[in-house]
Amino acid sequence: MLHIIYQSPLELATLQRIAINDSVLFMENSLFRLLKSSRNTSELETMSTLHSLFVLDEEIEIRGIDPSELVTGIKVINYQEFVTLTLNHSLILTWN
To answer: What is the DSSP string of 17-33?
Structure first.
């Protein structure tokens, strides 16, 4: 399953509902919770070992976030890769 998360603040309860091997794409202001300085850093680093975690390059650029500021394990992708993610997952769940 592909989870697309827009939530800000990012709720740990949401992250706990994601099954092992699911993919997660963080969008909009949820990106601010992916910074190494955020309160969810350890949970996100653990998640990255069990899930594929993604952000769009344009989303972080718009918000002035450098990829090096993101929690370890978050992959920066472009729109073509986003399209591929949606094609590779028959189920998509959006968290607002």
So the answer is: TSPTT-EEEE-GGGGGG
Count of residues making up the chain: 96
The proportion of the chain whose per-residue pLDDT surpasses 90, expressed as a percent, equals 62
Sorted by where each starts, the structural domains of the chain and their CATH numbers stand as 2-95 (3.40.1260.10)
22 pLDDT above the threshold of 80 = yes
pLDDT of residue 82: 96
Dist. CA 47–CA 70, nearest whole Å = 14
Give yes or no for residue 17 having a pLDDT over 90: no
Q: Assign 70 to helix, strand or coil.
A: strand
Question: How far is Cα 18 from Cα 47, in angstroms, rounded to an integer?
Answer: 9
Tokens representing 56?
A: 């769009």
